[in-house]
Design brief:
Layout lengths: L2 H32 L4 H36 L7 H24 L1 H8 L6 H14 L2 H17 L4 H25 L11 H20 L2 H6 L16 H36 L9 H35 L3 H37 L5 H15 L2 H16 L4 H24 L5 H28 L4 H33 L3 H25 L4 H18 L7
Helix pairs in contact: 1-7, 1-11, 1-19, 2-3, 2-5, 2-6, 2-10, 2-11, 3-6, 4-5, 5-8, 6-8, 7-8, 10-15, 11-12, 11-13, 11-14, 12-13, 12-14, 12-17, 12-18, 12-19, 13-16, 14-16, 15-16, 17-18
């Protein structure tokens, strides 16, 4: 796959991710309006987070680490890897179904594990009922990842990134129906009925199921005719099993850290309920901040790495180290183009952007989301870099090193979370959690870069750091101009949501214009490498009949 095709495929995936994220913001805004931050919101948030955490722990990370490299290598067999894929999908689907049954039966234990000890028995019971509706998502998330990674390994990247948009459409429809039936605002724990619980949590699970099933036609279009085949002996899965074991251990560490986050943020939410009106924090605030934080990462880093991962896997299998290093360098430079811009945007315009994106919510809630996101954004660049570094280890079938890197990351993050709970006032706890996350991301990226240098000899560091220095210079210039525009508008128009919308639009335009202008002056070629393939794709789409995303 050529670099131009990689960039075009990344553009297709980025478009799907952007569409999904826009719909996700609509969905999150509706959820905040339907269930205002507080006891009920945190209860649903924990219950809906549990299936994601369980899936990531026992399937997601493992599947993402091993499927593309293994399927790429199996494709060299006489049958093109068809029998291998059939057996892998059959076994993995059975395991996912059994896992879903087990975790659903363990719903009471899981809710108590992820929630703070300050929850009342009534709140725990509500969380368990929510979880019983939500936990079947484990199976559907797993099936979505299985089918999506098979598509990625065969060079069809678009459907995997567009499918979540369908999930969000289903979720939005469910929330509109919920609001029409039950109204908006604060909702007491005792006010929840079986029907309202089923409507809120059931449509969330339905959306994940549709997200998985929509991939089946695309799978057939690529020539995959999946039929059940049993047995894996003799198919070279020993290496895959070793990689899966270390990846499982890595994700287990991550989830232990997320348990600490969940308990600390829900404890913060419980503390602020007794701190007086107008003070809001808790897991619901953290979740919405994380949604904003993940947007640029998912839009650029995940899209680009998904396209590069297949090419790097082929190069690593042939021991073409220089090509792996070149792809890593390309990924770091192009990803930095977006992550530096988005970091600057939120540091300059955070409160305006949060208030503009989360319509129907008061300034106190959106400011908490904004400040939490701003603390997270400090670590966005190293977070995306670390994601790239981890994938390079995986293409060499090395999952042990990412596990060793994860140890200090989780310790740093968890200690920071606990210190936030013990030392900060209630309304700052969630912001402290976000700052600890940034510190852990910086540490993780530094460790991964050092260890990867030993394997690859060098990481094209001088070129990568030179580009990032120019990106930061452009970001500071554009960000300062945008911040001045925002302050000026607030002084003239007052502190209203209309002002926030205006400041976001005008300040954002000033920021992007200043950023691109300075990059042009500094002759940053990566700007053309990222934008030109997208423009070519748009022209191609306008000139040719529409078809399936490539």
């Amino acid at each position: 796959m050529s670099t131009a095709r990689v960039m075009r495929s990344s553009a297709v995936m980025a478009a799907g991710t952007m569409t999904s994220r826009i719909l996700g913001f609509v969905r999150a805004s509706l959820l905040l309006a339907a269930v205002a931050p507080g006891g009920s919101a945190d209860t649903f948030s924990v219950a809906n987070t549990v299936p994601n955490a369980i899936y990531i722990l026992l399937a997601g990370g493992v599947l993402n680490a091993i499927l593309v490299p293994q399927i790429t290598r199996a494709a060299r067999r006489l049958d093109g890897g068809r029998e291998y894929v059939d057996r892998l999908l059959t076994m993995a689907t059975v395991v996912l179904f059994g896992l879903t049954v087990i975790v659903t039966m363990a719903a009471p234990l899981l809710i108590r594990l992820y929630a703070t000890g300050r929850w009342s028995d009534q709140q725990v019971q509500l969380g368990v009922v929510f979880a019983l509706w939500a936990l079947p998502q484990v199976f559907w998330y797993g099936l979505y990842t299985l089918l999506g990674q098979v598509l990625n390994a065969r060079g069809s990247f678009g459907p995997f990134m567009w499918a979540p948009a369908v999930n969000n459409l289903v979720g939005i429809a469910g929330l509109i129906a919920f609001i029409a039936a039950a109204g908006t605002g604060d909702r007491a724990i005792s006010a929840w009925t079986p029907g309202s619980i089923a409507l809120l949590a059931g449509t969330a699970t339905l959306g994940v199921a549709v997200q998985a099933l929509v991939l089946l036609p695309f799978l057939r279009a690529t020539g995959v005719r999946w039929r059940p085949r049993w047995g894996l002996r003799g198919f070279g899965l020993r290496t895959a099993g070793r990689v899966a074991g270390w990846t499982f251990a890595t994700v287990l560490l991550q989830q232990l850290g997320f348990i600490v986050i969940s308990r600390v943020t829900t404890a913060g939410g419980s503390l602020t309920q007794s701190a007086g009106p107008g003070v809001k924090t808790g897991k619901a605030i953290y979740d919405n901040a994380f949604l904003l934080f993940m947007l640029p990462h998912s839009l650029v880093a995940v899209s680009l790495v998904t396209a590069l991962f297949t090419r790097m896997s082929v190069a690593a299998a042939d021991d073409r180290i220089d090509e792996v290093r070149d792809d890593l360098s390309l990924g770091l430079r192009v990803t930095g183009l977006a992550t530096v811009l988005c970091t600057t945007a939120f540091l300059a315009l955070g409160p305006d952007l949060a208030r503009a994106l989360f319509a129907g919510n008061n300034a106190g809630d959106t400011n908490q989301v904004a400040y939490t996101t701003m603390a997270m954004m400090i670590g966005l660049v190293p977070f995306s870099a670390q994601y790239l570094f981890q994938r390079v280890f995986y293409v060499f079938e090395d999952a042990r090193t990412p596990f060793l890197i994860q140890l200090p990351i989780v310790v740093t993050w968890s200690v920071g979370n606990l210190l936030s709970l013990w030392l900060l006032p209630p309304h700052l706890i969630v912001i402290g959690v976000a700052a600890a996350m940034s510190a852990a991301n910086v540490l993780g990226a530094a460790l991964a870069a050092g260890l990867l240098t030993r394997r690859l000899g060098h990481l094209d560091g001088r070129r990568v750091m030179g580009v990032h220095a120019r990106l930061v210079t452009a970001g500071i210039s554009g960000g300062l101009a945008a911040w001045l525009v925002s302050r000026g508008l607030h002084l003239v128009l007052g502190d209203t949501r209309l002002t926030a919308l205006t400041a976001s639009a005008v300040g954002g335009a000033v920021l992007v214009g200043g950023y691109v202008g300075v990059l042009r002056l500094l002759r940053v070629r990566e700007l053309d490498e990222a934008v030109v393939p997208l423009l070519r794709r748009v022209r191609s789409d306008n000139a040719e009949p529409a078809g399936h995303p490539a």
